[in-house]
Design goal:
The chain is of the alpha+beta class. Helix content is 47%, strand content 21%. A hairpin with a 5-residue loop joins strand 5 (113-117) and strand 6.
Length: 149
């Protein structure tokens, strides 16, 4: 009987652990660009910095929302890009970049910032600032209706 009660008490906690397995499948910029050549899909670049409080809030609250996770994973190649990272280098369109130089090339000047690119890797728009899950989904739906009729 004690074992049954213990299992009943532990089950909700154990189930909660499994429910959080869902996450955005973040890629590097060069991984996303390679995938877009093979199978065209829009790219969503989340540009952040380590010191940005709103970036951390968006990671914690928006990018962990199940609807947001499903939406991004189904419709985009999602990229996380640290606007101050210069260590890792990659080639894009014949030039060498780091995440920091790519963020500058995309003219990102505030954080968090979402850069939306089409499958040809051309910038469509930027969505600067923090967005709650509902506002994020509304913005994305409006954008996709406009650029993916």
């Amino acid at each position: 009987m004690k074992k049954l009660i213990l299992l009943a008490l532990l089950f909700p906690f154990g189930f909660g652990l499994f429910a959080q397995d869902k996450e955005i499948k973040w890629l590097s910029f060069d991984e996303a660009s390679e995938l877009a050549v093979k199978e065209p899909k829009m790219i969503l670049v989340s540009v952040y910095t380590d010191w940005c409080g709103w970036c951390k809030k968006m990671d914690r609250e928006t990018f962990t929302d199940n609807e947001v996770i499903d939406y991004i994973n189904e419709r985009f190649y999602p990229v996380k890009m640290n606007a101050e990272e210069n260590k890792r280098k990659y080639k894009f369109r014949g030039r060498e970049f780091t995440d920091a130089t790519m963020a500058r090339t995309m003219r990102v000047t505030s954080y968090p910032n979402l850069v939306i690119m089409d499958a040809a890797m051309e910038n469509i728009t930027q969505l600067p600032g923090y967005r709650e899950p509902e506002g994020f989904l509304t913005s994305m739906n409006t954008l996709l209706e406009k650029f993916n009729p």
